[in-house]
From TrEMBL:
It comes from Manganibacter manganicus. GO terms for molecular function: DNA binding; DNA strand exchange activity. The lineage of its organism: Bacteria, Pseudomonadati, Pseudomonadota, Alphaproteobacteria, Hyphomicrobiales. Belongs to the site-specific recombinase resolvase family. Keywords: DNA integration, DNA invertase, DNA recombination, DNA-binding. One of its GO terms (biological process) is DNA integration. This is DNA invertase. The active site is at residue 24.
Length: 309
């Protein structure tokens, strides 16, 4: 038994244990949760006051965005993190993408163990069944309403009642925020590295090279929402300074290199060709030496850190 316990512990990545404690109102306190999280060995505890039914939680969103590989997010109970299976799975998916783990002290969910992953897969299957049942009930309700001569949908929306329209707008904004927060770890780091030195078009093209389908307009709108919610710095929205064509190429190459320092000069050249960027001399074929010249210029100008000897 002792050896089995030691083996399970040794499989856990050596990272921080970060506790997340949430209560619904300002009148409630997180002390009881904090004591339990500290007893479990949490190095840091993030506190938040907010309804469990709401997915717009700035502290949790920031934690998921900034968590490091090997860290583990720990909660006392699952309902402190999420009130629905779909929301729980979204958070865990974001943690997994960041190389982090999740653990609930009072529930059989620990993504560092096979048993915990099995429990998570069961929850995923339950969520899929729940979505299918809801869809079937909705379709049945629409068929019944049509059979009785009723129009489907919200009567308040059809009649353009102000209170119904206001509720619909609020729901749409909340849903938009949830979608944005679910993917920030995929695109926001690149935006932070490249803005405001690069245009939104440049950043959208770099993201597209990584398989992320963003238009400049959608990207700017998403960042504007993040700034309005206090989740990103307002400097990201500053107007890009006008640049000479060669200066723009230098900052673009620097941005590609900064986003993935493991790329070879030839791989960066291939990306520039796929982006249909012309060389400084107007050609369409990029050579590794041209890429190296731009990277060297970026280092001399301070745009990139100089390589150590």
């Amino acid at each position: 038994m002792a050896n089995d316990t030691h083996n399970r512990a040794s499989r856990r990545p050596q990272g921080r244990l970060i506790g997340y404690a949430r209560v619904s109102t300002d009148e409630q306190a997180t002390e009881a949760q904090e004591m339990e999280l500290l007893s479990a060995g949490c190095d840091v505890i993030v506190r938040e006051h907010g309804s469990g039914a709401s997915r717009a939680r700035p502290a949790l969103s920031k934690l998921v965005r900034e968590i490091s590989t090997g860290d583990t997010l720990v909660v006392v109970r699952l309902d402190r993190l999420a009130r629905s299976v779909s929301h729980l799975l979204e958070v865990i998916e974001s943690l997994t993408a960041a190389g982090a783990l999740f653990r609930s002290l009072r529930d059989p969910i620990d993504t560092s163990t096979p048993q915990g992953m099995f429990s998570l897969q069961v929850l995923g299957a339950v969520a899929q069944l729940e979505r299918s049942l809801i869809s079937e009930r909705t379709k049945a309700g629409i068929r019944a309403a049509k059979a009785k001569g009723r129009l489907p949908g919200n009567p308040g929306i059809r009649e353009r009642r102000p209170e119904a329209l206001a509720k619909m707008t609020a729901a749409q904004k909340a849903a938009y925020g949830t979608r944005i927060q679910a993917t920030t770890n995929q695109w926001l780091p690149t935006v932070k590295r490249m803005r405001p030195d690069h245009t939104w078009d440049d950043i959208a093209r770099v993201l597209k090279q990584r398989g992320l389908d963003w238009t400049p307009e959608r990207l700017r709108r998403a960042v504007r929402w993040m700034v309005s919610e206090g989740m990103a710095d307002a400097t990201l929205l500053r107007k890009s300074p006008p640049r000479l064509p060669e200066d723009r190429l230098m900052t673009l190459v620097a941005g590609i290199h900064s986003s993935n320092a493991k790329l070879t000069l030839r791989e960066i050249a291939r990306q520039l060709e796929q982006l249909h960027e012309r060389t400084p001399r107007g050609g369409i074929k990029w050579s590794p030496s041209s890429v190296k010249n731009l990277i060297d210029r970026a280092r001399r100008s301070g745009l990139l850190a100089r390589e150590s000897a």
